[in-house]
Amino acid sequence: MEQVLLLNASPRSTESSSAIYLSHLETALKKQEVSCSSVTLSSDNHHELGDQLFHSDKVVMAFPLYADCIPSTLLSFWNYIEQQASEYNTRPKIYVVINCGYLEHTDNDIAISIVKQFCIQVGFEYGFALKIGSGEMIMTIPFKFMVIAKLKKMSKLICSEASTEDLYVQMPLGKKMFVKKE
Amino acid sequence: MQTLLLTDVQLMYSELPLHLQEAKIVDVQSANVSPCIGCYTCWIKTPGKCVFKDDAVQINRDIIQCETVIYISRVKYGCYDTPLKRILDRTNPIQQQLLRLHENEIHQVQRDVKQKDVIIIGYGDISDEEKHIFENLVARNALHMSYRNYQVIFCKKEGIAEVLKGISDS
Q1: A11 contacts B37? CB cut-off 8 A
Q2: What does the pLDDT read at residue B35?
Q3: Dihedrals φ, ψ of B156, to 5°?
Q4: Would an 8 Å CB–CB cutoff place B22 in contact with chain A?
Q5: Per the CB 3.0–4.6 Å rule, which of A133, A161, B88, B126 could disulfide with A67?
Q6: What is the mean pLDDT of residues B108-127?
Q7: Which chain B residues are Cβ-neighbours of A134 within 8 angstroms?
Q8: How many CA atoms lie within 13 A of B120 on its CB side?
Q9: Is the pLDDT of residue B169 over 80?
Q10: B18 touches chain A (CB under 8 A)
Q11: If contacts are CB pairs under 8 Å, which of residues 28-57 in chain B contact chain A?
């Protein structure tokens, strides 16, 4: 059976929005009888998670945008993965759930480009990403259903291996409503 | 302090042009900086103050006060490499939780940060695609962190000293 690794790479660990997204994705994948493992990145489990990553068929990395791109903690893990790659002859397909605090999901685009470079340099196939705007707020308000619907769609696309553009979701609000009132 | 230089390569004092010999230089490889844990204490509970009392506290003070910052970082996957990125991730205390509209995009409100000129020296064996991504990344940082002017310079690691000599003090 195909093995999917759900990797929570948020620096906030299990208390993060990324953990919530992956929990919904795991539920959706298990309904399709996919074998999933959920793990959380920390500074002292690179070896263990690296081994799990290379023994998986597909990996979904979930993380927030930090200073417009990848959190340093995940970059550090990627460097470890690249160093270890020659020890393994398997390469999982990489999927991403990325969220930013700002409203616009397009703020995640540069980070997605960086993910693709990581995949090229290590020899991973890039699947697609779910880009979430207003990621900090969206799961605490009625628009939560929009994210869950996208995660269900993501689970189906991961299973079917259908090629797709990146998915996205954000709160359906105007920018002026989202920011501070002067 | 006029100029702050954050670098992930060790620089020889003698390699620096005269005007940079007065700069404050921080070796980001050896700096004691914990990764940001996204707790938002610096925005909500103790605005401007991080829960970690490590070298990033002084680095943030220096970033607030200086007029020019020079970043030197290996470019990895089109991104800053981990040591400098760890420090950039810890700059949340110099921004407020509040948001603003700037050029029809949502950005953070800065916390009394001096407008500054920023030079980013990205080094390594960098592909054209990585250069393109890195330039776009710096442009986003410039918008979010209110850079007055900025310049991205690419070079090989062994060419860093030459690039620094070419940076004028104007």
Answers
A1: yes
A2: 97
A3: -80, 160
A4: no
A5: B88
A6: 89
A7: none
A8: 24
A9: no
A10: no
A11: 35-39
Distance between CA atoms of residues A110 and A103, nearest Å: 16
Are residues B141 and A68, on separate chains, in Cβ contact within 8 Å? yes
List, as one string, the DSSP characters of B80-120.
E-HHHHHHHHTTGGGEEEEEEEETTEEEEEESSPPPEEEEE
Q: How far apart are CA B54 and CA B57, in angstroms?
A: 6
Q: Are B92 and B51 in contact (CB under 8 A)?
A: no
What is the helix (H) or strand (E) element at residue B143, kind and residue range? Answer: helix B128-144
Closest-CA distance, B144 to chain A, in angstroms, reads: 9
Do the Cβ atoms of B136 and A113 come within 8 Å?
yes
From the list A43, A130, A4, A39, the residue with the least C-alpha distance to B33 is: A43
* Strand (E) or helix (H) holding A144: helix A144-160
CB within 8 Å of chain A, chain B residues 130-159: 130, 133, 136-137, 140-141, 144
Check residue B37 and give its pLDDT.
Answer: 96
- What 8-state DSSP symbol labels residue A66? B
Token duo for residue A71: 């959190």
Question: How far apart are the C-alpha atoms of A136 and A140, rounded to whole Å?
Answer: 8
Q: Do B106 and A12 touch (CB under 8 A)?
A: no
Residue B168: other Cβ atoms inside 10 A? 7
ipTM for the predicted complex: 0.93
Contact between A129 and A167 (Cβ < 8 Å): yes
Predicted model pTM: 0.94
Structure tokens of B62? 């220096």
Residues of A in contact with B36 (CB under 8 A): 11, 66, 71-72
Are residues A179 and B101, on separate chains, in Cβ contact within 8 Å? Answer: yes
